[in-house]
Structures are given as structure tokens and as C-alpha cells.
Amino acid sequence: MYKLSVRTFFGACALLTASLLLQSATAQSVGLGIPVTEAQLQAFDLIVGPDGSDLPEGSGSPLQGKIIYEARCQACHGLNGEGTIDNTTLAGGDIHSETTPVKTVGSFWPHATTLFDFIRRAMPADAPKSLSNNEVYQVVAYVLYLNGIINQYAVLNKDTLLTIEMPNKDGFMDQSQIQ
Predict the structure, then answer these.
(1) Structure pTM?
(2) Domain definitions of the chain by residue range
(3) Of 89, 106, 114, 163, which sits with the fewest C-beta atoms within 10 Å of its C-beta?
(4) CATH class given for the domain over 58-163
């Protein structure tokens, strides 16, 4: 006859109980959340690459962008992009200063397309993704104008945005191809 120690018996009982609980839990739905549809997922997949891949239709000029900027951006970024605190400064700046560099759109960002991407997905801070594609093109145009990168009559769209040469375009290394 085989003798079972108390420790082995209770260990086997614990293992059996855990197994039964796990089977019961997986058999029942936990009832959290709702299924996500493909259309809902599209609203989250808004990434525009530095090469301009996935830029949407739409257009805008600095003159149009100034209206949106004053209504939706000025409170954090100031009237002329000077910012209200250090990390909200959009215009001016000097990445090559001998003191602490001031990183702005004009002094730091290497691609105008990433500016579009950031504004589209994250701005305004109190209502991300609330701007239409036209409004994003307009705000991007205005911010580029504030930095002296384009003139006030330029019109940005998915083709012309790709032609913008940012002052710091050579200031970054693409490490995605480095092995």
C-alpha cells in the first residue's frame, strides 16, 4: 500500500483546485471591454513617417493656420510660438548655442512630416486628434512660417510638405538601418 504524506496530499489538492479554477475562468468571459472594429482601429493608426508615407489629403496655408493656432494653440505656445514654459517653445531657438540649446521646430526638427504627425496625433494637448486634416496642414504651415521656413502664402498638402527642407535636416542619423 502506498502512503501519502500530508504535505504531498495538500500539495496535490492545491494543484487540483488551481487547475479547476483556471478551467472555470477560461470557460467564462470576464465581461470587460467591447470588441474593437476595424474602423475604430483606423482612428488610432494615424502615423505619418518621415518619408511622408500615409500623409492624408488636405491642405492649408499659414494665413489659415494663424486662425486655428490663435484659437487652439496660443494658450500653451504663445502668440508667436515663444512658448509659455520651456518645452512649449515652437519658434526661434538655437540648437548650436554654447549655453543650453533651445530645441524648437525651426532649430531641431529634421522633417516637416514628423511635425504634421505630432500635431495630428497629440495636439492640442487638451483634445488630441481633434483637428481635421486641413486644420493640421494649416497649423503646420503657420508653425513653419513662424520659424521662417516658408512664406505666408505657401500652401501645404501631401506633396508640398515633402519638399520642405528643415534647417536641421542633417542633424540626425538614421539608425534603423544599422546592424
Answers:
(1) 0.74
(2) 58-163
(3) 163
(4) mainly alpha
